[in-house]
Write a structure and sequence with these properties.
β1, α1 and β2 form a beta-alpha-beta unit. 38% of the residues lie in helices and 15% in strands. The relative contact order is 0.19.
Length: 184
Amino acid sequence: MSRTVAVIVGSLRKDSFNRRIAHELIAVGPDALAFEIVEIRDLALFDQDLEPTPPASWTDFRTKVRAKDAVLFVTPEYNRSMPGVLKNAIDVGSRPPKENVWNGKPAAVISVTPGPTGAFGANHHLRQSMVSLSVPVMPTPEAYIGNAGKLFDESGALTDDRTREQLRKFGQAFAAWIEKSLRD
């Protein structure tokens, strides 16, 4: 059975390392998973006053995420945390609380940075936020991809076979995590 996965990329830059890693995982991921990048670029900032008649960007985003079986976050780190645009997407999806689109969806996190730490802070801050939304986040394997600027050629293609293999194994583990989480 194929499972559908919403891929949320926490960087808005069209050629970001995070978007490249997301596309690479989609390419090497298991056939059991059907990935779709759900864009967050045009999401209006969350404002509770808008909730009675939410902006179309919120409604579209919520509909796309709600329709998926699971969610994969691919995020950079900004100031030891996730980017504001990603936090906004989480807030938009979590409201109103009784309609939380994240609720119960198995998730995984990949953090990517040009620095050496693999965006560890963003990865864990995101995990912490998802716990309060009843999202079972895959505990292992963890994916911290550092020195991302050295992993791609001039055309943006991944040249590092170890990273490609890491993503392949991560995708397999995520597929198993989704099945386990949805069964439990």
